[in-house]
Amino acid sequence: MLVSRIAIFLLVASSSWAQNPMARPRAGKVEILKTSQIQPGMKATAWTVFEGTEPEAVPVEIIGLWKNAWGPRQDIILGKMGGKAQRTNVAGGMSGSPVYVDGKLIGAVALRLSVFSPDAICGITPIELMLEINDFDKSRPAESKSPDRASSRAALEVPHDLLQKVLSASATSQLTSASALMTPIETPLTFAGFHEATLREFGPLLRQMGLNPVQGGASGAFQSPTPAPGWQNALQPGDPVAGVLVSGDMSINGLGTVSYNDGRRVLAFGHPFFNLGPVEMPMAKGEVLMTLSSAFQPNKIANATEIVGALRQDRHSGILGVLGETAEMIPVTLQVRTYADNDVVEKAKEFRFHVFVQQRWTPFLMMVTLFNSINQINEFSDEVTYRFQGKVELDGLPNLQLSTMQTSGELPVPAPMLLAGWWADKFNRLFGNAVNTPKFRRVDATVDLLPKRRIATIETAWISTSETTPGAELQGQVFLRPFRGERMMREFKIKIPSNLPKGEHRLMLSDADTLNRMQSAAGLVNRYMDIPQTVSLLNQERSNNRLYISLVEARPTVYADDKTLPGLPQSILNVMQSGSMQNRPFITAGETASEQLAIPFEHVISGSYSLKISVK
Q1: Is residue 264 located within the same domain as residue 165?
Q2: Residue 307 to residue 285: CA distance in whole angstroms
Q3: Regarding beta strands 329-339 and 440-450, do their DSSP bridges make them parallel or antiparallel, or are they unpaired?
Q4: What distance in Å separates the CA atoms of residue 418 and residue 423, rounded to the nearest whole number?
Q5: Does one domain contain both 171 and 319?
Q6: Which residue range is the domain that position 90 belongs to?
Q7: β-strands 400-406, 455-463: how paired?
Q8: DSSP codes of every residue in 474-541
Q9: What pLDDT digit, counting tens, does each position of 115-133 carry?
Q10: pLDDT digits (tens, 9 = 90+) for 76-129
């Protein structure tokens, strides 16, 4: 009998709620119900979009307050969602759905209880906590979500730190892991224009940060971060909202729901996006295609539509954006060309997109977009060689000119991933200085896919004579062993410098890495490097598709900042080591290598070989 009465009571309550639903909330001033006034059993209404762009009302029964669940003196309101949410459960993308009691705003749906629970139990971030977001200054939270902070339990020996993070995350990913009982709803990070292989490679790293990468779309390829017409009426409470990381021919955006809109400022999510603190990220409208019901990972499948403002704060209790404002992005043009065996371009594709500017995320986004662009080419294969040229335009500085080649080698990492990691490392270097922040104008890059694995190792060399005089010309030959095929030979001529001292010297034939190593190390250990010095140092890096011939003398070289100081007398070196240069790190090499000639190849060159010469 008691069970029957309870069932009748719930039916009547549900019927009463259905007959008297509140009107859809709109932007503007709203009355707030404080956490101290919340009581168990209260009937509430949440607003969220299940399909399309119109929010639907969802009944919520308040269970009570979970004291200090969100942090010291930060309570969470527990609620049980009904209606459609009983079928979908608390889905990714519902983060920020506003919740009202008798027309008064109490907070936003932001957490869920477990992942396999049959009940749609949600955690509601009180609106008082969310309204505090605008009071923060420019300080940055200590625990942000960024690719460099993801754990990497498996240490794979590969170049470039960010590449190691991606590969290590992939190697150690697990389906489930121990976590708190009540957790923030995973933010669906929607990838439009991305190949499945890209999500497979980079997905584990994103999941470690509490993000759920999904393939999706964008209803319009928004090429500009400028707010679209009509932004004044955008992002009403309950509407889908997206933070945009990449826009254009490829797009990446994180989806949530608008919690509050005072007519200009917008609050959403109810939990952090990346917890970056102050940000400059485009903010877009969205449309929901469907809400996927799942006991493990319910999610909204959605598109971002048009940019209507900019996110300014990303904090513990939510995100804050401003309608009508513009967040600067980096415009990128990436051309991918495939070559036939006769070195004629067969196909060419051009991708245009914009990238979110942030010191930890920009290198990762440059990495993932380059990798994806290569993987979308039908000619992609293990035996292809990738030739890369890039230009980075910076405000008030010379252009950064970069070039390299990459092909499969001994490392258990595909060549496209190695190339993408190399590209990301250059942006890490630009953002990594402690003096100032780079200002980007645009980025242009070209990737050529050349047939066959083109790698050649320096095998041996000879010169016409080992005895010479200052100003004389030496002739020689160098032999290289390619991955497949006949041994390659190149003839060369170099002129001995007229000021070269008499005695024994070496002629070194080497790859780029041999000459770059000391100079790059000097730049990495110097935390005083500013942007102009970093650009200068990167522009001095030699390309790995050239063979370099250098004269080596038994005199020390000092590498300081972006400068190479060859052949320093011991007296000057002693002053540098004990005087005013003590607080500025530099590296000393026991020999001086003076580059005399660079021979271009359509191969990745590796190795070195030395010949002795005697100057009379």
Answers
A1: yes
A2: 6
A3: parallel
A4: 9
A5: yes
A6: 25-327
A7: unpaired
A8: EEEEEEEEESSSSPEEEEEEEEPPTTPPSEEEEEEEE-HHHHHHHHHHHHHH-TT--HHHHHHHHHHP
A9: 667 788 999 999 999 998 8
A10: 999 999 999 989 899 989 999 999 999 999 999 999 876 667 788 999 999 999
